[in-house]
Structures are given as C-alpha cells and as structure tokens.
Amino acid sequence: MSNTSKVDLAAIEMSPIEYDQWEEMWPGFQDADYVETVLREGECLYIPIGWWHYVRGLRAGISVSFWWE
User: Tens of pLDDT along 6-34?
Assistant: First the structure.
C-alpha cells in the first residue's frame, strides 16, 4: 500500500541492541518526538489524515480502521 511506512517499528522495539542498523536505515528516526497512549475499553482515538502512527495491541482484541477523504 502506498500509505504504509517502510519503518518496521515492531522490529526496532524487539531489537534495540541493533540501534546502529536502525539508525543507518532511518537516520534520526529513534530521536523523533512521539506521543504514547493506552486506550481502555470503549475509548477511541482520532488520528488526523497524514499523521504517521503505529498501533500495538497489549492483548487480544478487535480494532477497526476507517479511511475516508
């Protein structure tokens, strides 16, 4: 998909010891500012168009994505 990042954040999280490899592939990415949150049951999060985001489930569940223009 054209709107999918090439940065593999899951791999970066699981292999922090390979920092030099990630820094070479995506210079400065690990120094980028970010916001982190945990949603509870019944909560939702609006992510504006064009905002890069990464979602990870802390346990089994269901998520829904809806793209519109």
Answer: 787 888 777 777 878 888 888 888 888 88
The DSSP annotation for 28-56 comes to TGGG-------PPTT------TT------
The CA distances from residue 10 to 47, 48, 60, 68, in Å, are 20, 22, 17, 26
- Cα gap 69→54, rounded to integer Å: 20
Residue 7, domain extent: 1-69
Count of domains for the chain: 1
Residue 53 has pLDDT above 70, yes or no: yes
Find the farthest-apart pair of alpha carbons in the chain and give their distance in angstroms, rounded: 40
What spatial distance separates the first Cα and last Cα of the chain, rounded to whole Å?
A: 16
